[in-house]
Specification:
This protein is an alpha+beta fold and about 500 residues long.
Length: about 500
């Protein structure tokens, strides 16, 4: 990132170091010489005033003070009011004594006098003190002299040679450039280390925030500092967890809502299909009943045989309508769970033997060979509901049995806490594409045989509803020589294991 915090921090601190080094160099180059001269001027004036005070106290104090000044590189000259020299540091250097006998100054002048120097500038400090900047023509050096009038009329002159401040300043600046370069390199290394360490938590926070923006809440901030960044990391992690929980809850609710909407649409479609199917199934018998009833009222049937035929058609269609309504009511009760199951244990083999006469009667009407082979087992079922389910499967098998020898076989076998009841009928296999539709209401594989058999396509739907109310499995499969429908019955004390 071009505008990262690390780069801004790096360049900000680097510029601060460069500014500090450059400012020091500039101040030394421009102000060091001025400050040096100002300090020496102030120091020389203060030393002159101190010597003037000791001059009033007596020769011993003056001698000590002069020795201290000369040890510091300052030459002292004292001149009487008449112009004679009372003391000269130059004379002391040449003759070993700066004072004349009796406190006076010996006759004779020093080899070089202050007046031998060129005066570059003169400045009056006050009415008694004057400063002079002098140029030495011999060695081309600058000297600083102070002249002060004492209270007794004598004149005090302090003189010192100034070192070359320009050379010293240049040397100092050169040294500062070297030390500044080293400081800059060390500072840059420290800045790199510091910025990386300082911005590492910020980068972690940024990465976590970007992951949150992508709805990835698994990434957490690994900030261990106890400062504001650490508190921000804890808050961001907490926000991430809360957002993850909220979005998950919203997702679950959205899925549930989607399922509810889909279920509502499915139910709406089923209602429309149900109404259409019921209307279709009732339309034909109602039309027949209406037609034949009007024929009887109009005396179309003149003889007794015709009137009997008309009456039988009306009765037959009314029975079909009654059967349809009863099956619809049964299916509605099972699917709405409005009627509780009356579960009871029963021996499945004896129970099937009791149903066999009913099934055999249906089979004889269609010349079908029906057999029942059941193993001894006790199951827990709602006997009335399962009887209807078994009769529906047997009736369905008998109606669809085909082949040279039309056969229907009813059998049972134990399966892991369940008894599987199978109903086999000979005939052609059922195509895969319609197998799932067989359990839908009003579905009929062969529409041409509807009027012939009187079936409306609710038998297998009722079987499905009964098995689902029992919490048991059901299904069908194509087998060799025909088709087998099956349903599972729970064995007494068989537990809650899933049927195999």
């Amino acid at each position: 990132m071009n505008d990262s915090v690390a780069k801004k921090l790096f360049w900000g601190m680097a510029c601060l170091i460069l500014f500090h080094v450059g400012l020091n160099w500039l101040l030394n180059a421009q102000l060091l010489e001025r400050y040096y001269l100002y300090a020496k001027e102030t120091q020389l004036v203060e030393q002159g005033r101190a010597l003037a005070l000791s001059y009033e106290r007596g020769p011993e104090d003056v001698q000590v003070m002069i020795e201290q000044l000369e040890a510091g590189g300052i030459s002292v000259f004292i001149t009487a009011a008449d112009g004679s020299e009372r003391y000269s540091s130059i004379k002391r250097l040449t003759s070993g004594s700066g004072l004349a006998d009796g406190g006076g100054v010996e006759a004779g002048a020093p080899q070089r006098r202050i007046s031998d120097y060129f005066v570059r500038r003169r400045q009056a400090v006050d009415k008694d003190i004057t400063l002079e900047w002098q140029q030495d023509p011999v060695v081309s050096k600058t000297n600083l002299a102070m002249e002060m009038r004492l209270d007794n009329g004598d004149r005090l002159r302090l003189w010192r040679r100034l070192s070359s401040v320009a050379e010293s300043a240049a040397l100092i600046n050169h040294f500062m450039m070297l030390t500044g370069g080293v400081s800059l390199l060390v500072g840059l290394a420290w800045i790199i280390f510091f910025t990386r360490r300082f911005t590492a938590p910020i980068v972690g926070l940024r990465n976590a925030a970007q992951a949150m923006a992508r709805l990835d809440f698994s990434r957490k901030c690994r900030v261990k500092e106890g400062d504001e960044l650490g508190e921000l990391a804890v808050s961001l992690n907490d926000l991430s967890e809360r957002l993850a929980e909220t979005i998950q809850a919203l997702s679950d609710k959205n899925k549930a809502l989607t399922k509810a909407v889909e279920r509502e649409r499915e139910l709406d479609g089923l209602r429309k299909s149900f109404i259409a199917n019921v209307s279709h199934e009732l339309k034909t018998p109602i039309a027949l009943i209406l037609g034949y009833g009007e024929g009887l009222r109009a005396n179309v049937a003149e003889d007794e045989a015709s009137r009997r035929y008309y009456s039988e058609v009306i009765i037959d269609e009314a029975k079909k309508m009654d059967k349809l309504v009863k099956e619809l009511l049964t299916l509605a009760k099972m699917e709405s769970c409005s009627q509780p199951l009356r579960l009871a244990p029963i021996a499945v083999d004896r129970w099937l033997l009791q149903l066999q006469p009913k099934m055999t009667a249906l089979a004889k009407e269609r010349s079908v060979d029906l057999s029942v082979d059941s193993a001894a087992a006790e199951v827990v079922i709602d006997v009335d509901k399962l009887e209807q389910a078994v009769m529906n499967l047997a009736s369905n098998a008998i109606c669809h049995a085909a082949g040279e020898e039309k056969t229907v076989r009813i059998s049972t076998e134990a399966r892991n806490g369940w008894v599987r009841l199978s109903v086999f009928n000979s005939g052609a296999p059922i195509p895969d594409k319609i197998q799932n539709c067989l359990w839908d209401s009003f579905y009929r594989a062969d529409e041409a045989r509807v009027r012939e058999t009187g079936r409306v396509g609710l038998g297998l739907s009722i079987v499905r509803a009964i098995q689902e109310r029992h919490g048991a499995a059901y299904g069908m499969e194509n087998v060799e020589g025909g088709v087998r429908f099956w349903l599972d019955l729970r064995v007494q004390d068989g537990g809650l294991s899933e049927p195999a």
